[in-house]
Design brief:
Length: 500
């Protein structure tokens, strides 16, 4: 014991997914066995072409047919580095070698069948991953950005392909749904929109602490949202647009390749670049493309800050049925999309509807206050500019209106002009107080998957009189007070002020 090599051990066990008591096993000395009665009797089903010491690395029992199985054979101990994958459709009486397309030198460690599409196979070899769309008759590289490494096993977990490598960690190919839909129609179409997989409405982690240094091992999280895949055969001549519409056909979100996605200015960035989520636009280039909808409505323009309007996230889209619309050079392609609730939660559909309705009302109110606040910023800047060349009489009028704006706005700034956003507002009847209150309400209502609390619903109703009064006061300031000042500026030969 303990001396020399030990061979002849069972290396893989594959229980049938369709027949009770049915088991396939393979050994590392080249034999395959099958039992139909939980091991009471065994039948040797070794492919006749195999010679001794051909290790049966993986046996895979089919998801669709009890008499179908696949075997990954490793013969590199015999100095044979060719790929060997065998397939049987008659319970092991006959086997076919199915390795065309996998190059010599990439001996096979594992083969797995997709549980959704019959005939879709994945192979893990000593130098990467391969896929077959026709039950192993032809294989194609599925390498992507995967390093050239030994892939020892694979697992199809939901819509993702997970691989275990020898020394290079676990890797995940997110969203194999397009592979399940590839056929001759896709190959011949000038443009094709794949039916998206069901998107689960889960909330990705927010602030998780300071990002780790780049020299530490780390991996990106999977995309959060609905994965939308499309193919352009020759590229698009006109802008490509992508729309998400609700069950009634209402527009939820619209993206265009003509959009200018916001860019990060590293010179002005006050945080680590790793904290800034990259954005992209739909591509017009030939090939396969993936776009991620984050399951949120577009934010009103007033709440978009300095981001491109199409990319500012608004409220969460409730679970339900949606439609993806892709327009390419005049062709309109559509596919249904289901947004499912987080399975870890138990929230009735009416709660999501209540949450969405109140969140949209709060968002609309926030947008109105934000628009007024931006006008106030613009007016304060204009008043400051006019003050430089104003006569004493005009300066008095400018200062008076500035004081009125500051009182109504109640924005806290330092003498150097820095926004002191963390300081509490001094008055309730101000744009800033209402803005802060609505922002807190928005977080309380749309920040978790649940029906709005009674306090949140009551709080929104309680802020309504103040909201109306503040916005009315701002409108009056623009219509009356600013008009009086503009008349004075015009008489003094100075440009008038416009805030809209």
């Amino acid at each position: 014991p303990g001396e020399g090599s030990r061979f002849g051990v069972i290396y893989t066990i594959a229980p049938s997914r369709l027949a009770d008591g049915d088991r396939w096993v393979g050994t590392d000395d080249g034999l395959s066995w099958r039992t139909r009665d939980e091991g009471q009797h065994w039948v040797n089903v070794t492919p006749p072409a195999l010679t001794p010491w051909s290790k049966v690395g993986i046996l895979e029992a089919s998801h669709f047919d009890a008499e179908t199985a696949y075997a990954a054979i490793d013969r590199h101990r015999l100095d044979d580095f060719k790929p060997y994958i065998y397939r049987t459709h008659d319970g092991g009486r006959h086997w076919d070698l199915i390795a065309a397309g996998i190059p010599d030198g990439s001996f096979v460690n594992a083969v797995r069948e997709d549980p959704v599409r019959k005939g879709l196979l994945y192979a893990g070899t000593e130098k990467g991953v391969y896929v077959s769309l026709d039950d192993g008759e032809h294989w194609h590289s599925l390498q992507g950005n995967l390093p050239v490494t030994s892939v020892r096993d694979l697992d199809v977990h939901g819509d993702d392909l997970v691989i275990a490598t020898h020394g290079r960690a676990f890797w995940v190919l997110d969203g194999v749904t397009p592979l399940r839909q590839l056929d001759n129609k896709v190959a011949s179409a000038s443009a094709w929109l794949f039916a998206p997989a069901t998107a689960v409405r889960f909330r990705p982690a927010g602030f998780t602490g300071t990002p780790r240094p780049q020299d530490e091992a780390q991996a990106p999280n999977p995309p959060a949202g609905a994965l939308i895949d499309y193919v352009l055969k020759t590229g698009a001549r006109q802008p490509v647009t992508l729309e998400i519409r609700d069950e009634r056909g209402g527009l939820v979100r619209r993206y265009s390749s003509a959009d200018k996605a916001p860019k990060t200015d590293l010179a002005k960035l006050k945080t680590a670049p790793e904290w800034v989520a990259p954005t992209s636009t739909p591509s017009t280039a030939p090939g396969h493309h993936r776009f991620v909808w984050p399951l949120r409505y577009v934010a009103p323009a007033a709440l978009a800050a300095d981001d491109a309007y199409a990319y500012a996230d608004g409220v969460w889209a409730p679970p339900g049925r949606y439609t993806v619309v892709l327009e390419v050079d005049g062709a309109r392609l559509t596919q249904p999309l289901t947004v499912a609730p987080d399975p870890r939660l138990s929230v009735p559909p009416e709660a999501y509807a209540q949450q969405f309705a109140l969140a949209r009302r709060i968002e609309d109110a926030r947008a109105r206050v934000a628009a007024a606040s931006k006008e106030a910023d613009k007016l304060l800047e204009a008043l400051k500019d006019r003050r430089k060349a104003a006569s004493p009489e005009t300066a008095v009028a400018l200062d008076a209106l500035q004081a009125r704006v500051l009182e109504l706005y109640n924005k806290a700034t330092s003498p150097s002009g820095i926004d002191l956003w963390w300081l509490s507002p001094k008055t309730v009847n101000s744009l800033r107080f209402v803005s802060d209150d609505l922002e807190s309400l928005a977080t309380a209502v749309d920040g978790a998957d649940s029906a709005p609390s009674p306090d949140a619903a009551a709080g929104f109703e309680q802020i309504q009189p103040t909201l109306i009064a503040v916005l009315s006061a701002w409108d009056e300031l623009k219509v009356k007070d600013l008009a009086v000042l503009n008349a004075r500026l015009k008489a003094a030969g100075q440009p008038v002020i416009a805030v809209q």
